Amino acid sequence: MNWLTGKMISRLIKFFIDIVFAIIAAVFVAPILIIAAVIVHLFSPEAPVLFRQKRVGYKGKLFTIYKLRTMSDDRDKKGELLPDEKRLKLWGKIIRTTNIDELTQIANILLGQMSWIGPRPLLPHEMSVMTKEEQILRQSILPGISGWEAVNEGKSTNRREMAEFDLYYVRNWSLWFDIKIFFKTVLIIFLKLRPEDAIRAPKVLAKEPVKPGKKDGV
Hints:
With 218 residues, the protein is mainly alpha-helical. The chain has one domain (8-200). It has helices at 3-43, 84-87, 90-97, 106-110, 132-138, 159-171, 175-190, 197-200; strands at 50-56, 62-68, 115-117, 144-146. Strands 1-2 form a two-stranded antiparallel sheet. The longest helix is centred in the N-terminal third of the chain and has 41 residues, at 3-43. The chain starts with a helix and ends in an 18-residue tail after the last helix. Residues 211-218 have low confidence and may be disordered.
């Protein structure tokens, strides 16, 4: 069995594990999600319980990601949304800290759009910190609920550094690597080691985007 065949078999095993565990998890987390959805509706009835957003998926195709809403829809006198820190209430912080808001992405796994472990599903404009070749490489594997970048969130100061973790993951992917990330994720959740939003999801800086052809020769 050559290296390529081994990789293909490993990918099939990963896909099988994703689906089986997603089905099992869906049964067990359904009551938790229902309770959390009721809490969101009671404390913030002015907007839908679910947050939907287009993200870049496998082979660069856009898909809709689902999350429980963790911020209120509070707006100023002009009708503009208030800053995130003012809309993130106690109920939202609890849902985020426990990662309950991510559990709705089990639906994305069952639809074949995501994996339990993989690169962070990015917004289209966040892809600009990578060259075209890097973007193709990064999206050659399904995005994940958790990933190598996710368990190293506190080590990145900008989006380019975040991308480096995901690129490293794709270049060095193996089932054992996924297992390592899984246990690190569990440890982070139970020990509440997840960093603040400003640290784990910095905005794309003006100087960060890679100009087409600057590094990839296009």
